[in-house]
């Protein structure tokens, strides 16, 4: 007969405690081991990467900009007087001559002013003519008076001289001799006074005529101004060229100085390039520029740099050094490359994507036969359109990833497949 053995409760509890302790130790060991393991390197497809080699040699610094062709000679035609648009005689894009009438305005008040100025001028001219006749008549009367006194003086002088001869012979009394001498002296004085009055009369007549003539000249100038304003109602192009803008409509009222049209000379063009303000500091007047008109590349040079910054760009004017290709016209889009300088014996690499230049950056440098790449810290210097100077961190012959690596942030090393 089998006897059932009773289990000791303490033994059972001890056995369970040992099992639990062993399990806890095992879990802890596994956790620590996994924490100490290095993360596996990320794998990247070689086809998704753009790889470039670091080189040493001559680096041509360039700055790129885009813009349009604009005429060198542009005239904005403004209204010379108030008026209402009567007719539009030209269309945008049309070829115009300097005397081509673009717009006709009407202004009844100005027309009345022209007629009134004409009447005032005619009246003043008639008054001037009358004054000239009166002045001339007065001078002639004074001349006649002078001539009469002169004749009387000469006769009296002859009579006095004859009486003096006769008085020496005793044929004329001394009293008569003295009377004739006094008469001649009186007439001589009157003759001198009349000559002075004649001179003053001439001066007065000249002054009166000059004053009236000045008034007539003023009225004539006023009439010319009015006529010019009236003629300005027929708005002309002013230069030979192409009508670019005509921002008015029939029936619209325009004021003096308001823009009526814009005419450009299409044969003389220049390029206006927009250059990023961070790169514009290296651009200077006289630098050579290669301009791509999308129908050929034309050489040019920088002629002006706008001192103001607009929307993060600086406006650079470029003049052409060679004839433009066929099809070049105002507002045609162009791309330009400004040649800044040549760096001799420079270490450079293709410009990486998404890297701030100049400054420090981290790039992936290839190693292990281009099967892997590790991050390295580099310092980049002067930049060009497609290349950048390497100041520190890379050596000629190194191969680096220059495509966008923002997706690899946090990875210090990658595997290239």
Question: What are the key terms here?
Answer:
417 residues; Elongation Factor Tu (Ef-tu), domain 3; OB fold (Dihydrolipoamide Acetyltransferase, E2P); six-stranded antiparallel β-barrel; four-stranded antiparallel beta sheet; elongated
Q: What Rg is obtained from the alpha carbons, in whole angstroms? A: 53 Å
Mean pLDDT: 84
CATH superfamily label of the largest domain: Efflux pump adaptor protein, beta barrel domain
What is the structural class? alpha+beta
CATH topology (fold) name of the largest domain:
Elongation Factor Tu (Ef-tu), domain 3
Counting H and I runs of at least 4 residues, what is the number of helices? 4
CATH class assignment of the largest domain: Mainly Beta
Distance between the termini: 76 Å
Shape: elongated
Largest sheet descriptor: 6 strands, antiparallel, barrel
Question: Which strands sit side by side, in order, in the main sheet?
Answer: 3-12-15-14-13-16
Tell me what the CATH architecture of the largest domain is. Beta Barrel
